[in-house]
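User: Fold this, then the next.

Assistant: Folding the first:
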Amino acid sequence: MENASNQKTANKWLSIPIIATITRLLCRELTLQNEYLRQENKLLKSKIKKRIIFTDDEGSCRRGRLWKCLDRDSAYGRRDGWKERLSQTVETYPVLKGMKILCVKRAMPKAANKKTNKAPIALLKNLGFPTNHECNSSLKREIYNNEIGIIEAATGKYTTLYKPIGRRFVGNINLHWNADKFLFTQSDAANWKIFEMNIDGTGMRQVSRTPDDVDCFEPCYLPDGRIIFNSNAPYQCVPCWHGTKQKFVANLYIMNADGSGMRRLTFDQDHDFHPHHG
């Protein structure tokens, strides 16, 4: 009996340093990952400091990666900088010469103060990009100057397909397999809705049919003709936001091509962002 008791006590105390060791290894792994992101950000900043704007704080690494894509010459002065880069890309890859690019053209907001640390967050939100813990439901609905258009890859010629009335958001474009139509998200005073339009700019129709307090966005065609998309319909929120209305998470839904048969696919407490077909 005494030996068994001693063995049990030994096993108990033996497990403690093992758990502590595992904990230390996990903490070290997380620390190394954070340090890698921090150093990567500093390295990129030092290399192209004159061209790109970055955020330095570790918590904004994700925002920084998107922020660095906003080239200074196109954001603050040279509006045709993208044409030069497109021309260089076509020269490098001649196969692109006969292709066209379906895109969103959005004016840069003027309100963001580049000198403050919060500038990237404010700018990205005013461009229609929520932060990594938010979705479209967290964004303002009518502050945008944007439109949908087509760029000819070889010449850089831009043609407007659709410009919404007022200052509504348009984006989240998804081109159909046959390239004859596309889905997109549009906001209005009530909510976020999913629309479809022909590639020539005709035949625009509203697809999603939900009450005004339910948002639908980020649509994607499925091979069987149905549409998968995101919605805040469950009114679910991550615990740290305590159910705040503007912080509802996006869960995946599916519906028929005409907007009927809306059905929930995921039951997650975190966002299910950007459904996309391969």
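Now the next one, as you asked:
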Amino acid sequence: MTTPSEKKKPRAGGPGSRRVEDEAGLWSFRVYGEADADTALVLLPAMGVPSHYYAPLLRAWANDGMAVILADFTASQVRPGAATPGQDGYAALVERCFPAILGELRDGFPLASPVVVGHSLGGQLGLIAAGHYAPDMAFVLAASGSTGHYYFRGVRRWAAVPILQAIQLTTRVAGYWPGDRLGFGGRQPAALIRDWCHTVRTDRFQAATGSFDYEAALRAYRGDVLAISVERDSFAPKAATEALLAKIPNARVTRRAYTASQGTAKPGAHFTWVKDQPGLSRVIADWARSR
């Protein structure tokens, strides 16, 4: 099993004062904020979305005096045939990245009330990790839902299976998923695509190299959740969000709908909500501090 490594910079509380990176290159996170911050937001991104895309949220929360831990799941060192020792796929993010973030919260922001903000895949895996490691931690689901293909409508629903088969074949031939060139999901290790495809097919979360039951971890989660559905989100429609919420029956859920100002303009409402200001950055900050 690989362990996190740090690229150390002066810990002055300024942007990027600490960067923690997985030695296999499967994840990293940056830490922003002062040690005496009263609220710490942990932002877990969508699959293949680089951390710099979330800069508008980071700036808004930092200007509001909040500490922020911004994760990156873009797997920067993935290459054809690359082998990652120990846990990979979902397990690398759930069982290595999230515990490292919890350690940073404990040591770096001892006075802060932590809230996880999970976008898309970050919401799914973040809830699993929270259910296992910190079942009372507050959580914001933003444009996130189950990836089971039967929660989609129309052509997208019926096209899901052949598209999934094409993704699996491409990954098998290339030795990784070249999403950075194909326009979906970013460059990803084969193991993560394996786990993701299993969820799309079965609507069940499972990691081939995981050490615990991911569905049971969801059921164990009992914290407060703000579930935000984005109108005209083709990747996380409302039915998919409700399906994910059904997997956390012990959570206390507040639902909210939001319309992205750019609507379905590329790359789609599933992503463009991040650019709205104040938009959801204010909604999330207010909810985090009101608890």
